Amino acid sequence: MITDARARAGELEMSSELRADEGPGYIFEQFRVPRGCLGYLIADPETKLAAVVDPELEMVEPMLDAIFRHGLRPAYIIDTHTHADHVSGTRDLKSKTVAKVVMHEEAPSRSVDIRVEDGDRLHLGELPLKFLHTPGHAKDLVSVLLPGRILTADALLIGSCGRTDLLNGNATRQYHTLYHTYRALPDDLLVYPGHDYKGRSRSTLGDEKRDNEKMNFASEEEFTRYMDLENPKKLDPVYHLAEALKENMK
Ligand SMILES: [Fe+2]
Predict the structure, then answer these.
(1) Separation of CA 8 and ligand 1 centre (Å)
(2) Cβ atoms within 10 A of the Cβ of 132, count?
């Protein structure tokens, strides 16, 4: 009975997130902390090489557990951008693994081992990770394109996009990211964002192109005016901004 109950509890736990091994031939798991930050573990089942994306500090232990559970070899820790709202777990994870830290070439952090620019690729065995420079929320933001999926970080959220009024934000660049870079990608790509405050896991790019109000402004001018002037008044101040930035730039 205990075994059955544990099995059922296990099932529930897995169904509340994404099931490992789901998807087109690679391991993919999503991690969530109560504040709504989302991180990811991606791995090639053949070579067991793995990449961790946006490990928030509280995700480090659960991510290490998953790495151990699947018998993976962490090769890369990818921080999609210099986070201003929370402390990244990258340095903690780096100290516990042999993985190399990957960020955009403009990232100020001194912990970066591999600097990528738009169009660069890294591989986990045969599995390609392609980096797209998608600035606007932050100057150094990269999205990660995988077979059938895109990790959009704060460049594209479900039904919204990241704010552009913080350090290194730029509404004009964000417009280009949403209306040119993302609009040019296929509708059936699954979108996995860096945050979701309503408990959602994913969307599709087609749904975002159709329904996301931030992707449907009539002009660049209206979009930038909204992001620069109206949007900031609706947003909460970011607490601990200076500490988070100081820590994440180390
Ligand atoms: Fe962010």
Answers:
(1) 36
(2) 20
Ligand 1 centre distance from Cα of residue 145 (Å): 18
- 74 part of a folded domain: yes
Find the CATH number of the domain harbouring 209: 3.60.15.10
187 CA → ligand 1 middle, Å: 24
Question: How far is the C-alpha of 245 from the C-alpha of 243, rounded, in Å?
Answer: 5
Note the pTM of the prediction, 2 decimals: 0.89
Amino acid identity for residue 27 in this structure = I
Domain total of the chain:
1
d(CA 27, CA 36): 22
Residue pair 158/200 in contact by the 8 Å Cβ criterion: yes
In a domain, 2, yes or no: no
Short-list 50, 13, 56, CA closest to 153: 56
Distance of CA 84 from the midpoint of ligand 1 (Å): 6
CA nearest neighbour of 192 among 29, 82, 33: 29
Is 3 part of any domain?
no
pLDDT tens digits, 118-141: 999 999 999 999 999 999 999 999
